Amino acid sequence: MIEITYFGHSSFLVKVAGKKILFDPFISPNEKASHIDISSISADYVLISHGHEDHVADAEKITKSSDAMLVSNYEIAVWFAGKGVKNYHPMNHGGSKVFDFGKVKYVNAVHSSTLPDGSSGGNPGGFVIQHEAGTFYYAGDTALTYDMKLIGEEYKIDFAFLPIGDNFTMGIHDAIKAADFVGTKKIIAMHYGTFPFIEIDLETAKKAAESAGKELIIINIGDSVSL
């Protein structure tokens, strides 16, 4: 069992093998996460999928306050190094790295990636995390892509964090196909409802997932689940 806490948008804290991994922290600018005190959040690792503000906003502060290791593609890792983040590890597509909680592979995503000051964020990606109790996939912001089939061929994915908000990323129907491609029945919903562009009907999404034999897991901001 691993514990997952949702901080809104695409930000999750996942406790794996005694370590805390924070994904794409966009918390303090998010009005829907206004009850979350980021000073109370500590992490051992901060994983960044791409450079957009709604995925990196609190990364510098939390990384520095926690002395966490920031893991992302080369461009993003070096950009944060330039902002004084001393503990970082750069990756790129197809590469893997073993950390003390497990093995991370940086995989393809189809999206865009520009950092808040206009610097290049490199190419967007996602992460496959292998740990002592299993394997999960964090897709980041992405369209449905046939490359996801390769993940399903290589790994036994227990659950996947997938965007469902449509407009900028996959919607629920493509997320269901993505879950098929990677070989999981459990979808943890992300990247929905934060802005008007990505407001969706969650009940409709749940019914679509159920009809396809998938479990769509919706976590309230600030709540935790164990899987």
From TrEMBL:
- Cross-referenced InterPro entries, in alphabetical order? Metallo-B-lactamas, RibonucZ/Hydroxyglut_hydro, UPF0173, UPF0173_UPF0282_UlaG_hydrolase
The record's listing under NCBIfam families reads: PRK00685.1
A Pfam short name = Lactamase_B_3
Q: What GO molecular function terms would the record report?
A: hydrolase activity
Alphabetic keyword roster: Hydrolase
| Protein name, per record | UPF0173 metal-dependent hydrolase B879_00672
Family matches, as Gene3D superfamilies: Ribonuclease Z/Hydroxyacylglutathione hydrolase-like (3.60.15.10)
User: Would you say which domain of life the source belongs to?
Assistant: Bacteria
All copies of domain Metallo-beta-lactamase, residue ranges: 8-191
Q: Which family does it belong to?
A: Belongs to the UPF0173 family.
